[in-house]
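INTERNAL AUDIT FORM
Audit reference: QA-55
Scope: verify that the stored structure record matches its stored sequence.
Auditor: D.O.
Record contents follow.
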Amino acid sequence: MDALGKLYTSTAIVTVNVDGKMNGITVAWVTRVSWAPAMVAISVGKTRYSRELLDKAKTFAVCVMGKEAKDVAEFFGTVSGRNTDKFKKYPYTMEENLPIPTGTIAYLVCEKAGSFEAGDHIVYLGLVKRQKVLKDETPLLFGEHRMM
């Protein structure tokens, strides 16, 4: 085990809706970066289809997944939305024109505030416009290079 594996984070699905094309991607690299105003940062691989959509998006949702939603998180993290409508497999609700997948225990609706390159990823900054806790429980965690 390497030292980076000891950095634990909540597992989240980041969702977008660009010109009617909804997509979501599982991310383990999400963090709060400001209290006032409330802001978060997410990190998405440069080669991912979701990165292309995030570049065009004005808003995105960060959906914190519950422990019982590991299969949802695995699906959204391994299947590309380029040719697959991920939302056909799992139920979802809509919040401010953004899909919130089943298994979400809390979500943040964010206005994209900027982005920058970080190695093989792009980091997107989100200004939190709305947040809601759906279930008060411990999230699905990512650490030691796996979900738990």
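Auditor finding: record pair retrieved intact. The chain has a mean pLDDT of 96.
Action required: none
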